[in-house]
């Protein structure tokens, strides 16, 4: 595959970097944290999103090296973002989460950059939890034991088994943006969209989990979500993902 050679070349040239998207309180937009989202600054093709290369990166085994190229920058940037108590959330691929010493490496990086574990979150997808439950459970339990919150990403997109929610140390549910996109499609006839949010929020409340709604793009969606009891989210209504310098400048002004 041509792109695989490209990925390896890109790694040696440090072309991968994190952008940061704020996670906010829906009612007033107060920033609670930032999700780190990988970008590839391709010399010819410009800025590439994960959709353009993540699958090949995972299948070719490059993902571990790419993740670390991203994570090292995230940890170096984290002290600037977490000064006011905000968290930084990183995405870890299932394949990478199965690597045995990943928890130790993450804790080392936190220590080296003097970031408190309470200021780091890990996002894993539902699919990940299907892949190697035992090893992944050990790793997530250890990270959770150190105070790092674990978020279940893309919640509701098809692999969910509610049994995961007490099998794994999940503290945060991220509702996939496909649900948000459907929430305001003809409210009078479609009560399903709102019902899903109400149900997930009630489940999360009863298990003391936090809900973060992805893909909040309009004020109407925000208002509906607030009516349904959802309090936290991220999306273009607030901000897309931006490089670290953008947030550091915003903080200084
Ligand atoms: O930015 P975009 O919508 O294209 O992101 C798509 C997906 O890529 C995200 O939902 C996330 O799961 C994945 N992703 C983003 N950043 C990283 C990263 O640093 N490492 C890994 N493994 N996956 C990431
Ligand atoms: O894996 P995850 O679903 O967390 O990936 C988040 C991705 O979704 C980011 O890559 C980002 O570019 C994209 N994104 C963030 N906010 C919005 C939004 O409001 N609408 C849409 N369509 N995409 C978004
Ligand atoms: Na994510
Ligand atoms: Mn997500």
TrEMBL record:
Name of this protein: Diguanylate cyclase
Record domain EAL: where: 1-253
Superkingdom classification of source: Bacteria
């Amino acid at each position: 595959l041509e792109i695989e050679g490209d990925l390896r070349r890109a790694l040696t040239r440090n072309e991968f970097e994190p952008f940061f998207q704020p996670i906010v309180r829906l009612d007033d937009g107060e920033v609670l944290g930032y999700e780190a989202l990988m970008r590839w600054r391709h010399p010819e093709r410009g800025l590439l999103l994960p959709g353009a290369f993540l699958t090949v990166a995972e299948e070719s085994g490059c993902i571990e090296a790419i993740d670390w190229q991203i994570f090292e920058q995230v940890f170096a940037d984290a002290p600037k973002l977490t000064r006011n108590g905000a968290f930084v959330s990183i995405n870890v691929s299932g394949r990478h989460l199965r690597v045995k010493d990943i928890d130790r490496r993450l804790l080392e990086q936190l220590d080296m950059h003097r970031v408190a574990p309470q200021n780091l979150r890990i996002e894993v997808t539902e699919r990940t939890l299907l892949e190697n439950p035992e090893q992944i459970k050990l790793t997530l339990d250890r990270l959770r034991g150190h105070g790092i919150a674990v978020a279940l990403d893309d919640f509701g997109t098809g692999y969910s088994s509610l049994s995961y929610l007490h099998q794994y140390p999940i503290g945060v549910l991220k509702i996939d943006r496909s649900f948000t996109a459907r929430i305001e499609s003809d409210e009078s006839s479609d009560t399903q969209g709102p019902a899903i949010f109400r149900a997930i929020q009630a489940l999360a409340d009863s298990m003391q989990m936090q809900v973060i709604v992805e893909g909040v793009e309009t004020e109407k969606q925000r208002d509906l979500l607030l009516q349904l009891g959802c309090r936290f989210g991220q999306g273009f209504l607030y901000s897309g993902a931006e490089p670290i310098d953008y947030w550091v400048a915003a903080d200084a002004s």
